[in-house]
């Protein structure tokens, strides 16, 4: 039995409403495909759940015991948890990059481009799936934090605002990951991981930039991750070592500016690169 589907009307000849519906439909189809792949990989789900537990045990109990915070009257894990939230968001670049690089290498992207579907829908679908996965990762990390004594103190509205800032940074990192995944071959993706981890360390994720050498402290304060982590610490009501520099005093503003700037740069680059694939 052969089923013949009617051809889709070319994008150029569709109305604005029809184009929007086409993009939404393709976005949902691509996002559903990526989410199904994620669900059917038990190892990936296990690693997403275990990462928060291992991170808290290592940084909160092993290294954290060496950090003297008794004079401040607070536990180091109060300072640590927002940093772990931010680190998990930035490390998501590697997840997006690997998925896009593998799809490109296996010809999946070429297959999509040969079909009558919106290129915007494909990229938006990928970003939507990654945002949903990141939402689950952050939620699991929050539950683990509550289990070890971390808490927020300024109301549920501030929690939602902090969650929004984390997803805003993750959205920017998605487009960076998509662009790199379209450029880098799968066998070279490990290089990116070796760069991502130090970048998350050169921030106020685990310690204050004021405790670092001056040049390293300046880099850490201007790290986009530091802005988001500093902002959500304030929204959660968690303690932190605030600096005297302009960027440290305006972390909430920079937590919005940095992701928007990264998105403005890498979104068009990713779309252009995808459309130019041979």
From TrEMBL:
Highest taxon in the source lineage: Bacteria
UniProtKB keywords: Antibiotic resistance, Cell membrane, Membrane, Transmembrane, Transmembrane helix, Transport
Domain ABC transmembrane type-2 positions: 43-277
Main location: membrane
UniProt cross-references to InterPro entries, sorted A to Z: ABC2_TM, ABC2_TM_bact-type, ABC_2_transport, Nod_factor_ABC_transporter
Cellular compartments annotated: Cell membrane; Membrane
Residue ranges of the TM segments: 49-73, 79-101, 122-148, 160-184, 191-208, 252-271
Record-level GO BP terms: response to antibiotic
Gene Ontology MF terms: ABC-type transporter activity
A Pfam family the protein falls into: ABC2_membrane
Topology relative to the membrane: Multi-pass membrane protein
Family from the record: Belongs to the ABC-2 integral membrane protein family.
Family matches, as PANTHER family: NODULATION PROTEIN J (PTHR43229)
Protein name: Transport permease protein
Organism: Umezawaea tangerina
């Amino acid at each position: 039995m052969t089923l013949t589907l009617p051809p889709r009307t070319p994008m150029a000849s569709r109305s604005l409403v029809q184009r929007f519906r086409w993009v939404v439909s393709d976005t949902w189809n691509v996002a559903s495909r990526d989410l199904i792949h994620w669900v059917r990989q038990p190892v990936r789900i296990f690693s997403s759940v275990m990462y928060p537990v291992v991170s808290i045990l290592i940084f909160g109990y092993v290294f954290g015991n060496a950090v003297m915070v008794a004079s401040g009257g607070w536990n180091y894990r109060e300072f640590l948890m927002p940093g772990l939230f931010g680190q998990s968001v930035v490390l998501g670049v590697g997840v997006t990059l690997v998925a896009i690089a593998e799809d490109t290498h296996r010809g999946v992207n070429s297959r999509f481009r040969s079909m009558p579907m919106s290129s915007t829908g494909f990229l938006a679908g990928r970003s939507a799936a990654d945002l949903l996965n990141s939402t689950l990762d952050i939620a699991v990390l929050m539950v683990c934090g509550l289990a070890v004594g971390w808490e927020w103190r300024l109301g549920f509205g501030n929690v939602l605002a902090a969650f929004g800032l984390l997803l805003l940074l993750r959205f920017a990192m998605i487009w960076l990951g998509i662009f790199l995944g379209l450029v880098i071959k799968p066998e070279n993706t490990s290089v990116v991981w070796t760069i991502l981890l130090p970048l998350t360390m050169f921030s106020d994720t685990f310690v204050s930039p004021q405790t670092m050498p001056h040049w390293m402290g300046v880099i850490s304060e201007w790290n986009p991750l530091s802005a988001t982590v500093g902002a959500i610490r304030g929204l959660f009501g968690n303690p932190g070592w605030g600096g005297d520099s302009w960027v440290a005093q305006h972390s909430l503003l920079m937590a919005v500016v940095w992701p928007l700037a990264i998105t403005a740069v890498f979104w068009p680059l990713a779309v252009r690169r995808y459309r130019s694939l041979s």
